[in-house]
Amino acid sequence: MKLTQRPGVVFQPRVHAAMQRGIHSMVNAIRPTLGPVGGVVAIEPIHNKAQKPPEVIDNGGIIARRIIELADRDEDMGAMLLRAMIRRQQEDVGDGTATVAVLFQAIYDAGLRYLTAGENAMRLREHLENALPLILAELDRMTFRVEGQAALTRIAQSLCYDPEMAELLGEIFDTVGEYGQVDIRKGYGRGLKREYVEGVYYPTGLFSREMVDKQEIFRAEYQNPAIFICDFEVDEPRDLFPVLKVAADANIPALVLILRNMTDRAMSVILANKRIDKFKAMAIKLPGLNAEDRLAALEDLSVLTGATPLLTATGETLEQVTLQHFGQARRVWAEQRTFGIIGGRGNPRRVREHFANLEKRFRLTQDPEQRQRIQQRLGRLMGGSATLWIGGATDSEIEVRKAIAERAAAAVRTAVRDGVIPGGGLALLNCCAALEERWQAASESAERAAYRILCEALATPMRVIFANAGFNPSEIMARLAFENSSMGFDVVQKRVVNVVEAGILDSAAVQKAAVRNAVSTAALALTIDTFVHLRKPEIARD
Amino acid sequence: MIQGFKQTQDTVYSLARCQDVCFVARFSGIYRSDDGGRTWSLAYKAPDTDGPLATTTLAATGHDIFAGVKGGILRSSNCGADWFAAVLPPPAPLISALAISPNFEQDGVLIAGTAEDGIFVSTDRGVQWQPWNFGLLDLAVYAAAFSPHFGNDQTILIGTQTGIFRSKNGGRAWRSVSFPMDAAPVLSLCPSPDFGRDHRWFAGTEANGLYVSEDNGDRWERIAADHISGAVNAIIIPPAASQELWVLLDDRLIISRDSGQHWMTSSIFSPESQALAVLPGNGQQHPTLVGFADGTILPLT
């Protein structure tokens, strides 16, 4: 059967109703996953249904990704608006997708009620957006830094609900810090393991296996080598002669060449050397898949080792090499796909200044990709990396655990970097006091409506956590009303506790991003009055 | 056996006392004295070398003494009667600082700073050593000191060529603190005698005198600039006078009895000599010893 989707324009009141249905479909799928005792969602596999079990997911971001389209085109508009917002939340901070979804739904639903009662959508949007800085300032006020393995373990525990994983993530982040390089990989055993690697390590390796000098571990390792760095592609053996001559003249016993590319012919001049007791050399591929990454690697490597790189862009050639271009390190090791530098002999003042500059750039950059790149560079300069190996009984268990570990690691990192706030929805709820003050002082009805809407919405994540854990939210909220603002209900221990003392903490960056995304997207969604459907190309359906 | 205190051009890098035995680390090796420093004899002879075993630093507590040598760390648990060597991974690091946990009896933790390879940590009384340099952007370490509350706060400070780094997890990871880079290198570090109350740390620099931190190492400012200038080679709290703070400059020993508020000159040395190490006295039989760059060891009365 072939279907053609017709173009069309849809107006109110159909727009609001359809959007709301679409939003509800999406949020209701995600809602059960919020909180430590949340549920899971089963997703039907697209292919091979007879053999594949349904995919069981407990993450709002992944659930939203799996919902590609709703059958009703109008409802689909609402669902896809929400999906884009959830994706943004996931990309920005790596967590908080269920929180952002329920916040959005609460604001949109309450907003629609006011619009139905005759409130103006544009005025409401303006006041919702104006209230946002107040909420963020309140969350800033509640934010505090966390230090130490025990506190980080508690945060990890509140994210992954896996004590073994939380323990290891707490230790790893206590060691590597906010920028440290953490790799999460599939392991082969049943449990979890962690490993620390000393020094700077890059994901490129030797040009040839023939350069390996420790056959049993397929690794080349030099002590106190000189290091030459350039972004040249070396084709001919003779091109390397100037570099080798400078090394020979200076009686350098071990040389590491870091180059962009090298032909087999050029490599032969290194491999032909049989007097490795007098002189040995290895050639390593310059890290980076694109020009920007290569330039970053050149910069970092030169600062770390004290080498002066030769660059194609400046018109330099290998003929110009002198001893001053060489850097040094205490140890360099390289395998086929990785290499590492331990104890680079660059000027430590320059290293620290370079680190501080990158740190500053990280703080000023908003682009997530750029931030990711700078964070990786900072992590390398810190001089070590950690790997968490994820094991499990089956492949699918390993995959699920790995996804949880990646998510938890990203959120712990933001918690270390940007601080934490009281968790379990308490910090959001505690923002209401400031909003209520403004509400009392406001005279315009749209403004008063905006504060009421936000106040109700900020209590929603807490209510959903209680409901998901099998408690009556109204009953628990009524109990908490008699407690001071630091007390919340621990759904795991099933009792009222001081939330911070109990270690129930949320990443401040995650919660702030959730509030920012939910408020701005819901405020925009409330102003949508018309849908325009374009003609879609014919699609074949069985 | 060497009589007297003078050994020309055999620099004294460090002095330590283990019970009643004094030890000195020199370019030519480790020497011991059982008579308060009057006579010295070689305390350890490396089995596989005829040349001198340059010893750069010493640290002692109870009956345990540790000595940093090129490529390894020697340890003795019976005040130097028997020595065992721990060889560090190649290329051979030069040990520049050793520090022992205040809870050594219970935790067995030590750290070793090196001239080019950062920090090595041992958690088994010096038998095995692991490099722990996460976050240490400067691997040239000159000084190391444990917090007196290490058992609770897990804090260690190290002085490097470009400033001060602090670990709050027993040496697993390091973060720089806001010590002015222009004032570095930092040659000596010591917590205040009254650390439990004031949380003060003192840092001695190579050319810019003495610095103090009032907030457990976060921020630093220079103090006593009129009394203390130039190199501060050692800062110690003498065991017999635990409220005193001794600061060893190239040409004098300066003492404070109020956690660094006021300072007085205790001894002045020859301007040509360079005092590098001081070992507080322990009664009449064991006077305070000062070691100099030219190899001299002088008793102070």
Q: What fold name goes in the CATH topology slot of the largest domain in chain A?
A: GROEL, domain 1
The shape of chain B, in one word, is globular
Q: Considering residues with a beta carbon less than 8 A from a beta carbon on another chain, report the largest interface and each chain's count.
A: A-B, 25 and 25 residues
Count of runs of 4 or more consecutive helical residues of chain A: 18
**Approximate helicity band of chain B:** under 10%
Regarding quaternary structure, how should these chains be classified? Answer: heterodimer
The CATH superfamily of the largest domain in chain A bears the name GroEL-like equatorial domain
In round numbers, the mean pLDDT of chain A is: 89
Distance between the termini of chain B: 24 Å
Question: What CATH first level of the largest domain in chain A would be assigned?
Answer: Mainly Alpha
According to DSSP, the number of beta strands of chain B is 28
Report on this model:
Chain A is of the alpha+beta class and 542 residues long. Chain A has helices at 14-30, 60-66, 73-93, 97-116, 121-142, 149-160, 163-176, 237-249, 264-271, 291-305, 348-364, 368-381, 395-418, 426-430, 432-441, 445-468, 473-480, 508-525, and strands at 2-5, 8-10, 41-43, 55-57, 181-186, 192-198, 200-202, 220-223, 226-229, 233-234, 254-259, 261-262, 280-285, 327-334, 339-344, 384-390, 420-422, 487-490, 495-498, 505-507, 531-533, 536-540. In chain A, strands 7, 8, 9, 11, 13, 14 and 15 form a seven-stranded mixed sheet that branches. A three-stranded mixed sheet of chain A has the order 5-16-6. The longest helix of chain A is centred in the C-terminal third of the chain and has 24 residues, at 395-418. The relative contact order of chain A is 0.18. With 301 residues, chain B is mainly beta. In chain B, the strands form seven sheets. Chain B has a five-stranded antiparallel sheet with strand order 1-5-4-3-2, with no helix packed on it. Chain B is globular and about 45 Å long. The relative contact order of chain B is 0.12. Chain A binds chain B through residues 147-149, 174-177, 180, 196, 198, 223-224, 330-331, 343, 345, 348-349, 351-352, 355, 381-384, and chain B through 90-91, 116-118, 131, 133-140, 160-163, 168-169, 172-173, 175-176, 181.
